[in-house]
Design goal:
Shape: rod-shaped
Number of helices: 3
Structural class: alpha+beta
Helix content: 25-40%
Number of domains: 2
Distance between the termini: 47 Å
Number of strands: 12
Length: 182
């Protein structure tokens, strides 16, 4: 069935190409069943073929394809209107950083309070939703963080120790943390 439609479409393309190059092209069929396109008339032992009879049920197939394309375009439009960007959120997290002679950590609750730390001099400031500044005396470059699972909440965390963040206004802070949910 599919092969028939493909053959018909290929033949139709050949016919359209040939009619663009000749004023009165005709389709001819030999006794063997082979088809050919002639410029003006069929040869003696050939029969002229009605092209519309070759197309059969092609228009109904095209209609179903048009419906599928319309449905696909609607689905693409819906996906384009959806936002997959993470939004700032107060999430529980842990951060670790290197110090001379080892590593320190802090675990922070969603409200900004410290749940656990091995460095009593650590200070956590909750700037706004999803933004935290940590003062960790003696911290070297290379702080890392992880969100703590809160019953399957999906999110991400970004930790940096660079200059030029929202933490510049927080005196002594040297670790910047941003938490997001999806």
């Amino acid at each position: 069935m599919v092969r028939n439609v493909v053959v018909r479409l290929a033949f139709l393309c050949a016919l359209l190409w040939s009619t663009a190059n000749a004023e009165a092209a005709v389709v001819c069929q030999k006794k063997s069943g082979a088809l050919s396109v002639r410029e003006t008339a069929c040869k003696k032992r050939e029969t002229q073929v009605d092209v519309t009879s070759l197309l059969g049920d092609l228009p109904t197939r095209v209609g179903s394809v048009e419906t599928s394309i319309s449905t696909l375009q609607s689905s693409v439009s819906t996906l384009q209107s959806m936002s997959f960007a993470p939004t700032p959120a107060d999430e529980r997290f842990s951060v670790m950083w290197q110090v001379s002679g080892g590593v320190h950590h802090v675990a922070v609750r969603g409200d900004g309070s410290i749940r656990d730390t091995d460095d009593p001099s650590v200070v956590v400031v909750h700037v706004t939703v999803g933004q935290w500044c940590i003062t960790a005396p003696g911290a070297f470059e290379g702080a890392v963080g992880v969100l703590q699972d809160q019953g399957g909440a999906n999110g991400t965390i970004e930790v940096s120790m660079g200059i030029g963040s929202f933490c510049n206004s927080v005196s002594g802070s040297n670790i910047t943390v941003e938490t997001f949910s999806f």
